[in-house]
Write a structure and sequence with these properties.
The chain is an alpha+beta fold and about 150 residues long. The chain has one domain: Hotdog Thioesterase (Thiol Ester Dehydrase, Chain A, Roll), CATH 3.10.129. Helix content is about 20%, strand content about 35%. The strands form two sheets. A six-stranded antiparallel sheet has the order 1-2-6-7-8-5. The mean pLDDT is about 90.
Length: about 150
C-alpha cells in the first residue's frame, strides 16, 4: 500500500480491468496533475518478430487506459467514464526490450464530458512515442442515474 490515495484509487480501477492485468499494466505515479501507467515489455506484445517492436495496439490500450483512469486524479469520487473519442498520433516506434510509460492529464472537466491529453514514452518524456487526446463521458457514480444536459 501507499500513502498516496490517488495511486490507490488508480490501482483499484486498473485491477478491475482484465485486459490490463494480462498486459501487466501498473500505476507508476498519480497526482492532481495527471497519471502515469507502465506497460512492461513482453514478447507476447511484439508486433514485428523481426525487430521486437511492441504492437501499436498494446500502446493504444495503454493510452486509452491511462486517459480513462486519469479521471480519478480530478474527480472527488469514482465515476464511470467510458471512452467517447480517442486520437493517437504515433511519432516513432517504441524501442524493443524497454518498458513504455503513458502519461495523461484531464485538462477540462464539464458536467458531462472529461477532456484528456497525454503521451507515451520510454526513457524521456520529452521524446514521446505517441501523443493522445481523448474524451470521456461522465455517467455518474455506479448506481446513480445521470441527468441529461449539454457538455
Amino acid at each position: 500500500m501507499t500513502d498516496n490515495p490517488l495511486i490507490e484509487r488508480a490501482q483499484r480501477f486498473l485491477s478491475a480491468l482484465r485486459h490490463c492485468q494480462v498486459l501487466g499494466l501498473s500505476v507508476h505515479d498519480a497526482s492532481p496533475q495527471g497519471l502515469t501507467l507502465r506497460l512492461p515489455y513482453s514478447t507476447q506484445i511484439i508486433g514485428n518478430p523481426e525487430t521486437g517492436v511492441i504492437h501499436g495496439g498494446a500502446i493504444t490500450t495503454l493510452m486509452d487506459t491511462t486517459c480513462g483512469i486519469s479521471t480519478v486524479c480530478v474527480l472527488p469520487e469514482f465515476e464511470i467514464c467510458p471512452t467517447l473519442d480517442l486520437r493517437i498520433d504515433y511519432m516513432h516506434p517504441a524501442e524493443p526490450h524497454k518498458d513504455v510509460f503513458g502519461f495523461a492529464e484531464c485538462y477540462r472537466v464539464t458536467p458531462n464530458i472529461i477532456f484528456t491529453r497525454g503521451y507515451a514514452y520510454q526513457d524521456d518524456p520529452a521524446q514521446p512515442i505517441a501523443h493522445v487526446v481523448g474524451t470521456f463521458m461522465r455517467m455518474g457514480k455506479p448506481g446513480q442515474l445521470k441527468q441529461g444536459g449539454a457538455a
